[in-house]
Amino acid sequence: MLYKPSAPVPRVAVKVKRSRGRVVNRPRQQALNMNTKDGRRLRDIADGLATGMGGWAGLDELQVQAVRAAAEMTFLAETIRRRALEGDKTVSIDDVIRATRTAALFVKRLGIKPRKDDQGPDLAAFLLAREAAE
After folding, report:
1. Please, how many CA atoms are within 13 Å of residue 2, restricted to the half-sphere of its CB?
2. Range of the domain at 65
3. How many domains in the chain?
4. pLDDT tens-digit profile of 102-113?
5. Neighbours of 103 (CB within 10 A)
6. Residue 70 and residue 53: Cα distance in Å, rounded?
7. CB neighbours (10 Å) of residue 100?
8. 3 is a domain residue
9. Residues of the chain by 3-state class (helix, strand, coil), percent to 5
10. What angle (nearest 5°) sits at the alpha carbon of residue 128, between those of residues 122 and 130?
């Protein structure tokens, strides 16, 4: 015999505190508090990398995660380098090199290519402009 409840069972909607949609909907949200100096620096690095890839709006979820990872590694490399330059004896030159190399690898994997307008004039154009000015 099949069980039939006498009254319909209400379905309760459960609100999820955190979901994956947050990554897509708010890609600029970073791991650090944005009200701190370090948080603002991390956001600036991430914004620069995202701009190099066409802006936050044009990135899919995997690209957003890659930009965040590259920005975080770059920030960590900067922090380790700063600590070494300030004379912190717990940071070795190997730590600085390893962190810098890893950050460069993360940024290289993003595939950001320099734009043509970012490059300066070639030598011939520079010399022609210099001769015209004289």
Report:
1. 2
2. 24-112
3. 1
4. 999 999 999 887
5. 23
6. 13
7. 17
8. no
9. 60, 0, 40
10. 100
Query: What is the pLDDT confidence band of residue 118, given thresholds at 50, 70 and 90?
Result: low
CA gap 114, 125 in Å, rounded: 20
38 within some domain: yes
Spatial separation of the C-alpha atoms in residues 36 and 100, rounded to whole Å: 23
28 assigned to some structural domain: yes
- Tokens 């380098």: give the residue: 81
Q: What's the CA gap between 128 and 126, in Å, rounded?
A: 5
Given a contact cutoff of 8 angstroms between Cβ atoms, the answer to whether 61 and 70 are in contact is: no
Please give the pLDDT value at position 9.
59
In this structure, are residues 34 and 40 in contact, taking their beta carbons and an 8 Å threshold?
yes
One-character DSSP codes across 32-60: S-TTSHHHHHHHHHHHHHHHHTT-GGG--
Is 16 inside any structural domain? no
CB–CB of 71/88 below 8 Å? Answer: no
